[in-house]
Amino acid sequence: MKLEEITVKAHIQGIEPDQIVTVESVTFMGSDSLNVVYRTQSNALRERMLFRSDEPRLSFAQSGCPWGFDASPDEFKLATEAIRINLAYLFDSMMAVHTSNVEPLPHQISAVYEAMLPRQPLRFVLADDPGAGKTIMAGLLISELLIRSDARRILIVAPGSLVEQWQEEMEEKFGLSFSIFTREQDGQSKVGNLFEKKDLLIARLDQLARNPDLQDKLKQTSWDLVVFDEAHKLSAHYYGREIKETDRFRLGKLLGSQTRHLLLMTGTPHNGKEEDFQLFLSLLDSDRFYGKFRDGAHKVDVTDLMRRMVKEDLLKFDGTRLFPERRASTVNYRLSDAEAALYHSVTSYVKGEFQKADQLESAEKKNTVGFALTSLQRRLASSPEAIYQSLRRRREKLSRSLEEDKLNLRGQRAATSAGLTLSIGAAQEPDEEMPSGEYEEWEDQVASQVTASRTISEKEEEIRILEGLEESARSIVRSGQDRKWDELSTLLQNTPEMKDERGRQRKLIIFTEYKDTLTYLKDRIVGLLGRPEAVVVIHGGVRREERHKVQELFRNDPDVRVLVATDAAGEGVNLQNAHLMVNYDLPWNPNRLEQRFGRIHRIGQTEVCHLWNMVASETREGDVFQRLFDKIEVERKALGGRIFDVLGEVFEERSLRDLLIDAIRYGEDPSVQARLFEKVGWCA
User: Fold this and answer.
1) Which of 235, 421, 644, 657 has the CB geometry, 3.0–4.6 Å to 588, for a possible disulfide?
2) What's the pLDDT score for residue 595?
3) Which pairs count as long-range contacts for 213-220, CB under 8 Å and 24+ apart, including other chains?
4) Which of 378, 399, 515 is CA-nearest to residue 466?
5) pTM of the model
């Protein structure tokens, strides 16, 4: 408009930003400038000089009103909805519940809105039983923090096999688009650091823990919330007064220092050692849990740092139990005469090698030799096939090693093969951080070749013993004698719970410790059921994509009835379409019992879950397990089913693994018998 068009009482836009003003007086100051006195919408009287250059932005307000109704109604509604949603949390304290695609249960709501959200900053362990839906709780927490503008940058760290599952659940249930960290994307990032670029990110635990370059990049970032899934893997241990920190634990310390909120999620937070639990909690508060508590002085108070609810305490909104009953039974079997003879021969060999290992100067080498020997003992309990293959591989590798030793020592002056000391080689302790596939392969290598023999004559004698043991094991394998399999076969065929209404085998998961036994069981079960497609397997060597495919087959294909698995399927896998499980081999870590059972005893399970633990009578480790299960049954009845929470107290001073080794090495010693009886009710 032109300056000449501005008159008294006119309503003009463009004089004041985003306002319509009313002109009170106008005075030309020459031909190209105009002095204007006007009132604003707040009735303030102001004065301003306008020039020809201002004309393009000046205009009359339509109808003389400071507002109008001619804007796009769709855009107006969109804007008001955005403002409403942005402020909704002030009026709806559970906004994430009402905007997500989930129907949370009472314990999930209480975890998020009573236990976690009120804590500022949040440093917390969410330790509800496996299968209680902790991923849903984490998703609700993340959504609520985002809605309340209390978090923008969020990092989820999970085992490699679970990152895709996390991404899918965050997208499908909460509409949150998380990216999965990859080295390719990191290399293509313009800023050279994907951690800085992405606000919502999921990363693989071991990829971060094992790569110093990625940790250097993490040090350059800050986060509002970091979530660790399967956080019990962030372990550290006391050796005397010294602390041995794993790479995963150090990663937890690093990210804990880079974030305001830290959430550790695990269904098995306590491994039975109070001092290790204290180290785990130091990830949340390093000052409070600094140093080692004096033995027996006190236990860690976690009431303000951890929420743990066992399945027996979880209820629906109507007050009924959320989870069906879980029933554990022990299947005892007696070894045949040939199997018993092999058991005693291998156990004597293991005891003798332990005594030789005690003479080694290096504690590290002692530990590695001890690990190799206990692995042999566990394979002996697994199956004739497993111990035969293990003895064969060990004899072959020690024989090759002996030839190399002789070749290396040939020609040395004054050397006699009977008295020359050999190098055992660089020993290392079992790496708890290895992915399941690498760990199974590494354990097989250690069991096959690590020895306490220090001279050529000692190694030759050990090989002669192994040849005899191998021949005994081979004869049992060829004879087809296997009382353990006979008992499982009877269980599969004669147990009513195993059959559906049509007489078909119900969906069943069988856990074993070793791939040799897994392959052996698959062949046996296929022969029993008569259909190769009825049995699928998962072990550490199965690639992640193939593992997911096998899980989907077991869940959805009616022809697939049995899954045989190692502990590669023991964490983060949802298989509640089955309600039957057999522990063909028992783990020497009691937490794995709950991790395994948690695969079927999960939210959504409607059937009573049955677990059968197979235990060999008249063996030392079998006696320990039998007495342990008897004690757990007494505790279960006394505590209303909370059987797994008592395991930490049972093994607080010595782990189950240590007790089993004691039973194997010193089972005849009355003092050892007394200690074992005190812990698990064991008697010879």
Assistant:
1) 657
2) 83
3) 214/186, 215/251, 215/254, 217/186, 217/193, 218/254, 218/255, 218/258, 219/254, 219/258, 220/193, 220/195, 220/196
4) 399
5) 0.77
Q: Domains of the chain, with CATH numbers?
A: 3-64 (2.30.30), 89-313 (3.40.50.10810), 326-332+482-680 (3.40.50.300), 334-479 (no CATH)
Distance between CA 83 and CA 74 in Å, rounded? Answer: 14
pLDDT above 70 covers a percentage of the chain that reads 86
What does the alpha-carbon distance between residue 167 and residue 179 come to, in Å, rounded to a whole number?
Answer: 7
Which residue matches tokens 């003003």? 21
Nearest CA-CA partner of 381 in 569, 517, 490: 517
pLDDT in tens, 577-596: 999 999 999 988 777 888 88
Residue 279: count other Cβ atoms within 10 Å of its Cβ: 20
Determine the Cα–Cα distance for residues 498 and 632; give it in Å rounded to an integer: 24
**Strands 200-204 vs 154-158: parallel, antiparallel or unpaired:** parallel
Angle between helices 363-382 and 337-357 (to 10 degrees): 180
Q: What's the pLDDT at 113?
A: 96
What would the mean pLDDT of 415-421 be, rounded to a whole number?
A: 41
Asked whether the bond before 121 is cis by omega within 30 degrees of 0, the reply is yes
What is the reported pLDDT for 414?
39
Q: What is the C-alpha to C-alpha distance for residues 620 and 611, in angstroms, rounded to an integer?
A: 22
3-state secondary structure (DSSP) of residue 506: coil
502, two tokens: 């049509």
| pLDDT (0 to 100) of residue 514 | 92
E strand spans, 251-313: 259-265, 306-307
φ/ψ of residue 381, rounded to 5: -75, -15
Which residue in this structure is represented by tokens 């999970």?
158
Helices (H), 198-273: 205-209, 212-219, 247-257
Is it the case that residue 240 has pLDDT exceeding 80? no
DSSP 336: P
Report the pLDDT value the prediction gives residue 114, as an integer from 0 to 100: 95
Greater confidence (22 vs 411) lies with 22
The values of phi and psi at residue 233, to 5°, are -70, -15
CA angle 363, 365, 368 (to 5 degrees): 110
pLDDT band for position 673 (50/70/90)? Answer: low
Strand order across the 11-13 sheet: 45-51, 33-39, 20-28, 11-13, 59-60
- Find which of 146-150, 223-227, 456-460, 634-638 is predicted with most confidence, using mean pLDDT: 223-227
CA distance 291 to 274: 13
Q: Which two tokens stand for residue 326?
A: 């879980």
Angle at which helices 247-257 and 212-219 cross, to 10°: 10
- Please state the rounded mean pLDDT for residues 436-449: 73
